[in-house]
Design brief:
The chain is α/β, with parallel strands linked by helices and 180 residues long. It has five helices and eight strands, in the order E-E-H-H-E-H-E-E-H-E-H-E-E.
């Protein structure tokens, strides 16, 4: 195998690529594995959080509150325009159409995410959807205690859906104020 030495002393390996047509006669060859191994079958997967939210290719998705690579990968699978993540709710978030918090365990965390989510949805100019997955010891009490605060932030159509794992999905919409 040819090896190229870089000026910094690091090494770069050059690997020979095998065309898939050469591998057609041998099912155990590398080329055959390459042709089928990296193609996940999305048709057999369970519906995801973004499926439940109805996310599509025109949406900009912002994931807040925890490192959740599954949600980011799901946004890519849906063909979303953008997908970004912040472990702590930023004061100046990127514009978004959908803000998702895959795991919220306290009222304070939910309020901080709602405040940052509101700014992200308003920055987009069209409003959008905020979705919080409420987990922990008392997810329903968190939902009930923050619903008034969400209304004060301008969120409407606040709804709560129980999930199979015992968590609650809280969804609400934000629409920008009409310009007169």
């Amino acid at each position: 195998m040819p090896v190229v030495t870089m000026p910094s002393g690091s090494m770069l390996s050059v690997v020979q690529a095998y065309p898939l047509t050469e591998a057609a006669d041998s099912p155990s060859s590398f080329g055959q594995l390459e042709a089928t191994h990296h193609r996940p079958d999305f048709s057999t997967q369970q519906p995801t959080l973004l499926d439940a939210l109805g996310v599509n290719e025109t949406d900009r998705v912002l994931v807040l509150g925890c490192s959740c690579i599954e949600v980011l990968c799901d946004a890519v699978r849906h063909g979303c325009r953008t997908a970004s993540e912040a472990l702590t709710p930023p004061k100046r978030p990127e514009p978004a159409d959908v803000v998702v918090a895959p795991r919220v365990t306290s009222e304070g965390e939910a309020i901080a995410i709602a405040e940052s989510g509101r700014r992200a949805l308003m920055a987009g100019g069209q409003g959008g959807l905020l979705a919080l997955v409420l987990a922990g010891a008392q997810p329903l009490s968190i939902a009930q205690s923050i619903s008034g605060r969400l209304r004060a932030f301008g969120f409407r159509r606040i709804r709560i859906r129980r999930q199979a794992n015992g968590h609650f999905l809280l969804m609400c919409n934000l629409r920008p104020a009409p310009v007169n």
